[in-house]
Amino acid sequence: PAPIIGHLYILKQPITQTFAKLADRFGPVLSLRFGSRPVLMVSSPSTAEECLIKNDVAFCNRPSGFLAGKYLGYGYTSLTWAPYGPHWRNLRRISAVEILSSHRVQLLSGIRADEVRMLVLRLISAAGDGDRAVEMKPAMFDLTMNVMTRMIFGKRYYGMEGEEEAKRFREIVAGTFRLFNEICIGDMVPYLRWLDWRKEKRFKRFKEEREILMRELMEEHRRKMKEVSDEDDGESKDQRPLIQVLLKLQESEPEYYKDEIILGIMLVSISPSLSWAHEYLTKTMGGKKIQILLD
C-alpha cells in the first residue's frame, strides 16, 4: 500500500469490475487498506457465507467516522449505521415486522396492485398507438418508490409532477443518493477531515432541509391520528402506514422513540438500496423480460 492513502489509488470506476479483477488476480480473500481503514474483501460464495452467516456477529458492526453516518444516519443511530446491540436489534425487528414480513406484504398487496395498474395506464398513454418507444427505467423506478412511500408515508410522490410536496420529496431522495456516493477524504484519512469542510457544510445543510420535510409529515400524521380514533377509523390498524405505527410507539415509549429515531427508521427505508432494485429491474432482468411481464 502507498503511504497515507493505502490502496485508494487502485479504485477506479466501475468499482465492481475493479474488485472483480483484483479477485481474479489475488484470490477470493484480500486484505486492503483504504487510507487508515483496514478492509477485508471477499468474493466467493463460501467466504461470504463464512463472514455473513457463520460469523455474522463478528462482522456486523458498522464503521464510525463517516460524514454520511454522522449527518444522514443521525449520529449513527439509524439501522444502516448503528453498532450491533439492543438498539440495532430493535430497529431490525421493526423493519422486519412492519415492512418486510410476509404478513405485512400481504396486507398491503392492494398498494402494489394499484401502483402496477397506474403504471400500465401510464405506459399505454405514453406509447400512444404503439408506435412510440417508452423509457422503462424511470417508470420502474417510480413504481418501486411509490410502493415504498405509500407503505411508509401513505402517499405517492412519483409521477406527481405538479405537486410541490412531491417535488420536495424527490429532491430529498435524489440528494440522499448523491451524498451517500460523495467521496470524502476524511472518511478514510481522519486527520485530513479539515479538507472536507465544504462537503461537511453540504451535509449539514441537506440534513436540515430533509428534517424540515420529514417533521412536517410527522406533524400531519399526528393531527390525523388525533382527529380519528382507532374505533372510528375505517382503515385497519394493520394497514396504517409505517409513520403512524412509529408515532403510536412514540406515545408509549417517548424516551426511546424520539423524533430522530423515527426519522432514521423511515429514511433508511427510502435508501440507496432501492436503487439496487431499480438496477435489477432495468439491467439484470432486461427490458425484454419487463415487456413480457407487462404483456
UniProtKB/TrEMBL annotation:
Stretches assigned to coiled coil: none
Protein name in the entry: Costunolide synthase
Protein's UniProt keywords contain Oxidoreductase: yes
Organism: Opuntia streptacantha
SUPFAM superfamilies referenced in this protein's UniProt entry, alphabetically: Cytochrome P450
Keyword Isomerase attributed: no
Domain of life of the organism encoding this protein: Eukaryota
InterPro entries: Cyt_P450, Cyt_P450_E_grp-I, Cyt_P450_sf, Plant_Cytochrome_P450_Monoox
Single GO MF descriptor: iron ion binding
UniProt keywords, alphabetically: Heme, Iron, Metal-binding, Monooxygenase, Oxidoreductase
Taxonomic placement: Eukaryota, Viridiplantae, Streptophyta, Embryophyta, Tracheophyta
